[in-house]
Amino acid sequence: MIRSVLITAVVLLLLMAVAHAQRVGAGRVRAGAHKVEFTPKASELQVSTDSIRDPLFARAIVIDDGSSCAVLVGIDLGAAPNQVVDDAIARASQAIGCPAQNFIISATHTHSSNTQGLGQGPPSAKSIADAIVEAVTVAKSRLAPARIGYGTTKIDLNVNRDLFNRKLEWRKEPNRRDRRTRRSP
Fold first, then answer.
1. By C-alpha distance, which of 99, 95, 153, 154 is closest to 129?
2. Which residue ranges form the domains of the chain, and what is each CATH number?
């Protein structure tokens, strides 16, 4: 549900940017991107069974047309807690001069972040917010002429159920409602 709302918001933002770019003239839209790692050190892990499987990043894209801007941020966490989002947006908005209401921050739902919950172990809320602010600030400094477009396709990214297929093989299969129209290999 959250993922579809985020995708819809991103698509609407991009469509609005395309429409606006057509009104103000081609070539005026600029974009910049940057990512900042906030993976804790192995020595900071508080549970002996925890390990660092994948690095954790804050990834930012800043879009600007000279009169308006937008910021998209993805963070490698299981959720985007208000404590992190509010702090990061306030500081990043101030740093780059883009209104706070033009920010979207989304969590990727990773299983590589801490197991104790935000504030109970690394990475801390402050280190995550700091990474977001740095990613946004650097992305803004990297603005370059950009063109915005979109395309459509159909892929099976939402294959998230462990099921036996018709050959009695244990596989990742589409959700049940998709199974009516799909055949297993």
1. 95
2. 2-39+55-145 (3.30.365), 154-185 (no CATH)
105-127 burial code (b ≥16 CB/10 A, e <16): bbbbeeeebbeeebeebbbbbeb
Per DSSP, 185 falls in state: -
Cis peptide before 122 (omega within 30 of 0): no
Instruction: List Cβ neighbours of 49 (8 Å cut-off, separation of 6 or more).
Output: none
Give, to the nearest 10 degrees, the angle between helix 125-141 and helix 82-96: 30
Residue closest to 113 by CA, chosen among 62, 160, 74, 73: 74
pLDDT tens for each residue of the chain, 185 residues long:
666 666 776 666 666 766 665 554 545 899 999 999 998 887 777 776 667 778 889 999 999 999 999 999 999 988 888 989 999 999 999 999 999 999 999 998 776 665 455 445 678 889 999 999 999 999 999 999 998 888 998 765 555 566 666 777 776 666 555 444 555 54
